[in-house]
């Protein structure tokens, strides 16, 4: 069954204008020999964009692309073992087509030598290797992660025949690595996914519904955009529900019915978030929901019961570690998940359960 709005899986072709822009940007950076740090919230299509960019480049030159999902590793040792195994197999395969094979004693390699394998293989076989790391921020869960990041950076920043894509969904942890502590500085170009504009979203929805002979007006697509905060995955999920229950014309009533269904799907996750925070952390969230600029002002602390600047700092750090909030360059707080924000404002805070 072909889904009109493929929110349920990674796709082989960019499905919206933002994905297309990101794909072309990534494609050009890799073509220019650059490395990439790809930072965006969960479910924004990182895996699809990476796949599509590599597929396009593979039409121009031979590329070996391999992916490591760091959610699969909980230690430095398990990661290095998989790294060694992967590049051993790649080298064995490439050796089959050359007269003088690259011979490596895999039994006595140090961590540095294992991390250097891709470069040796790429240069010896005269081939480009692209390595993608999914959920790269999970490297921070390794024991002595700072030491390993230092070691990792020291090795890979010398590589010229291998290109690296460091992607991650935990925005604060990725920024900690690439912006705060500046690992891979001047080595990886940081890409942050922009939010689609209302116009882009409107055109996307209009084109998609038109394929199946259905119609959607601008004010309706704007409503869907506002509910989802422009988040592509939520927009597609909501649009898919609308598509299933509308005979031909997407009305406001259908959208609100679909919003209820979408919220019902995700509400247990949102409730778990609330159950895992303190009263002080919740008060800070309330201030951020109200777009308070100066959280530590006497007025803000009194209105939102924030107690003290020290308490605000502790709550802020805790909520950032849980990836519930983030702060922009102007130090203004934002809720990372736009549907969670919508649920807070329009469901949780409007009912008795928040009392």
Features:
alpha/beta; five-stranded parallel β-sheet; globular; 53% helix; Rossmann fold; two-stranded antiparallel sheet; 3 domains; 355 residues; 10% strand; single chain; Arc Repressor Mutant, subunit A
Estimated radius of gyration? 23 Å
Distance between the termini: 44 Å
Q: What shape does the CA trace take? A: globular
Structural class: alpha/beta
- Order of SSEs: HEHEHHEHEHEHHHHHHHEEH
Reading side by side through the largest sheet, how are the strands ordered?
2-3-4-1-5
Number of separate strands: 7
Integer tally of domains: 3
| Largest sheet features | 5 strands, parallel
Q: Topology of this protein?
A:
Elements: H1 17-31, E1 35-39, H2 46-58, E2 63-69, H3 76-95, H4 111-125, E3 128-134, H5 145-156, E4 162-168, H6 171-180, E5 188-192, H7 198-211, H8 218-228, H9 232-245, H10 252-275, H11 279-289, H12 298-303, H13 309-321, E6 325-327, E7 333-335, H14 338-346
Parallel strand pairs: 1-4, 1-5, 2-3, 3-4
Antiparallel strand pairs: 6-7
Helix pairs in contact: 1-2, 3-4, 4-5, 7-8, 8-9, 9-10
């Amino acid at each position: 069954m072909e889904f009109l709005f493929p929110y349920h899986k990674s796709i082989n072709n960019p499905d919206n204008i933002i994905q297309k822009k990101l794909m072309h940007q990534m494609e050009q950076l890799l073509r220019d020999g650059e490395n990439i740090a790809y930072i965006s919230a969960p479910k924004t299509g990182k895996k699809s964009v990476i796949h599509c960019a590599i597929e396009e480049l593979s039409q121009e030159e031979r590329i070996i692309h391999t992916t490591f999902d760091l959610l699969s590793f909980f230690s430095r040792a398990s990661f290095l073992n998989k790294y060694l195994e992967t590049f051993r197999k790649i080298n064995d395969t490439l050796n089959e087509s050359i007269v003088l094979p690259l011979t490596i004693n895999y039994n006595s390699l140090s961590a540095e030598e294992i991390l250097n394998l891709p470069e040796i293989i790429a240069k010896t076989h005269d081939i480009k290797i692209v390595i993608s790391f999914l959920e790269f921020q999970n490297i921070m869960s390794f024991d002595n992660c700072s030491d390993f990041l230092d070691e990792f950076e020291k090795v890979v920043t010398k590589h010229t025949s291998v290109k690296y894509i460091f992607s991650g969904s935990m925005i604060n942890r990725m920024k900690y690595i690439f912006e705060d502590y500046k690992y891979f500085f001047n080595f990886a170009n940081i890409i942050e996914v922009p939010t689609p504009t209302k116009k882009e979203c409107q055109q996307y929805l209009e084109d998609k519904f038109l394929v199946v002979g259905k119609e959607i007006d601008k004010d309706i697509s704007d409503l869907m955009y506002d509910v989802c905060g422009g988040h592509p995955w939520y927009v597609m999920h909501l649009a898919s529900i609308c598509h299933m229950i509308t005979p031909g014309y997407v009305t406001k009533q259908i959208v609100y019915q679909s919003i209820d269904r979408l919220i019902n799907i995700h509400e247990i996750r949102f409730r778990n978030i609330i159950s895992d925070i303190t009263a002080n952390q919740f008060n800070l969230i309330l201030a951020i929901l109200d777009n308070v600029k100066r959280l530590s002002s006497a007025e803000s602390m009194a209105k939102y019961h924030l107690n003290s600047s020290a308490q605000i700092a502790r709550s802020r750090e805790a909520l950032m570690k849980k990836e519930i909030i983030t702060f922009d360059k102007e130090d203004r707080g934002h809720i990372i998940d736009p549907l969670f924000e919508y649920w807070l404002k329009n469901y949780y805070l409007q009912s008795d359960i928040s009392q």
